[in-house]
Design brief:
Distance between the termini: 44 Å
Number of helices: 5
Structural class: alpha/beta
Order of helices and strands: EEEEHHEHHEH
Helix content: 25-40%
Shape: globular
Strand content: 15-25%
Pfam family, one: DNA_binding_1
Largest sheet: 4 strands, mixed
Number of strands: 6
InterPro entries: MethylDNA_cys_MeTrfase_AS, MethylDNA_cys_MeTrfase_DNA-bd, MethylDNA_cys_MeTrfase_DNAb, MethylG_MeTrfase_N, MGMT, MGMT_N_sf, WH-like_DNA-bd_sf
EC number: 2.1.1.63
Strand order of the largest sheet: 3-2-1-4
Keywords: Cytoplasm, DNA damage, DNA repair, Methyltransferase, Transferase
Catalytic activity: a 4-O-methyl-thymidine in DNA + L-cysteinyl-[protein] = a thymidine in DNA + S-methyl-L-cysteinyl-[protein]; a 6-O-methyl-2'-deoxyguanosine in DNA + L-cysteinyl-[protein] = S-methyl-L-cysteinyl-[protein] + a 2'-deoxyguanosine in DNA
Length: about 180
Amino acid sequence: MMYSTHHWSPLGMIMLASDGESLVGLWLEGQKYFAATVPEETEERPDLPALVAARQWLDRYFRGERPAIADLPLAPKGGAFRRAVWDILCEIPYGKVITYGDIAKRMAAQTGKASMSAQAVGGAVGHNPISIVIPCHRVVGTNGSLTGYAGGVDKKIKLLEHEGVDLSRLWMPGQGTPL
């Protein structure tokens, strides 16, 4: 059985999902791949400890605190490659960004390959089922383009601003000037 609840945030409504023990999903309303890793109907359970902890984590985050990812029991659903990429995302510090290419290099090194496709990494990043907590919003294109956020580039910008990222070297997709 899967359980869910909804939580209001400065970015709008968020849906949280749990397997009863761990957080398995966190999606912004209207997000691409919304609830894609929750294959069954969910029972609304706002009192479930994993969901209470996730709501408290989000409240702390949006108050400007820097709660640790390890504060939450996480169990994102995905294959080994995606989980390895998500593990790298969890290492990106608050206020910092990394490129898809940087992650591809790290994945290549971890798997003993000469190179890795940044597009493959982008697919894994884009299918991250626990947005915000697993900080996929901290990934940018090699040229500084703010591309590839399933929740929408506008929300990615708000999250990066919230974390104090210097946006002056980052670009909106399709535009030739910095933000």
